[in-house]
Amino acid sequence: MRSAFSSSIFRPTMPFINRRSAFSVTRIISSISLAVLFTSVSISSASANENFASCTAALEKEAIQQGVSQQTIDAIFPSLVHQDNVIKYDRSQPEFVQTFPGYFSKRVTEWRTNKGKEMYAKHKTLLHKLSDEYGVPPHYLLAFWGLETNFGNYKGKMPVLDSLATLACDKRRSTYFTKEFLVAVKLFEREKLEREEMVGSWAGAMGHTQFMPSAYTHYAIDGDGDGQINLWASEEDALSSAANFLASLGWDAGFRWGREITLPENFDYRLSGYKNRQSLSEWNALGVMRADGSELGNADTSAYVIVPAGHEGPAFIAYKNFRVIMRWNNSEFYAIAVGVLADKITGASGIKATLPDLPAYSRKDIIALQSKLNTLGFDVGKPDGIIGPATREGIRNYQIANSMIADGFPGLDVMSALDVTLDKHS
């Protein structure tokens, strides 16, 4: 259910789980007890609505215990509506596995590049002030904004309070969403928000920067000085909050995200990946070069090589800030898109390498691949159709055993060697 407009509105895992919970131990225990009450909730529409009333009544009691005013209770709880589609979205799995070329080409576009330059001109003074204060350069803030909501053009349409209440009353991730819902209720009260403006993703991400309620509470700041923090209505609040959040995640001022590189013909692809970090000097000695053919340079900076589309696609070297971007959204594809879009906003040309023409593998294709690898003794865990670290490692080990280029990528050569018949829709 990923939107073409936003890379994180429909992300399957929640990127803004607050690491510095404002809840006391007793309140956490209380939230967990609520989760136990919800385990009997059915996902069928009729029974869901029947149980929703009793569940929200329990949530209301918890909100009152946490100090929410009766005025806020009256403004929210009587009008909560169970959102059947939210449960469908939560249970849905994509039919196809998106490859890097398809992902990247839809997100790093000329429209976003030009719009980013336009937004830079509009907010230049604020952006440089934020850069001085938080160490995050303007073009990165603009890239996040562009990827999250198309610079505010698409912030989601689902009623956030209804969506969060629906997920809180569903057994699958009740504990997490109970906390997020109660935080959203407090935000509604603290910022004097209107229900009609509190719209976002089906999972409750909100505003220009798609913050979950816990991130909103702890990292959102008043950027326009009006005494309110409104991530829907105020671009200044949103940009300031993004800078504060990235700084809190560990953004290292003065460093890039990474860059595109070229690899020597004899490069050992077993050296790629986060586990194989080396200094720039060591990569330089191995013949790794910048995309323009110049030397990578000598420095102690720790970095690692990424080949998101296999040995036939572009290669990148990633620095510390790359991992900070992934703490916003835990995806290498996303982090590369942020970095390249940021570069393009400053006038860079973008990726020099040609993106390979890869099929859109179906989940059935990847499950078949995983099953074959397991059968041959290359354990990748239970086949699930997701190309995660275990699957990449299994592919890499298979490639090594069969004298193939060990890039850990499910290229057509791997599929053919394993006799995987691709789904007819691929």
UniProtKB/TrEMBL annotation:
Record-annotated Transglycosylase SLT domain positions: 52-343
Pfam family, one: SLT_2
Residue span(s) of domain Peptidoglycan binding-like: 363-418
UniProt organism field: Alteromonas genovensis
Protein's UniProt name: Lytic murein transglycosylase
SUPFAM superfamilies the record matches: Lysozyme-like, PGBD-like
GO molecular function terms listed in the Swiss-Prot or TrEMBL record: peptidoglycan lytic transglycosylase activity
CDD domains in the cross-refs: Slt35-like
GO biological process: one example: peptidoglycan catabolic process
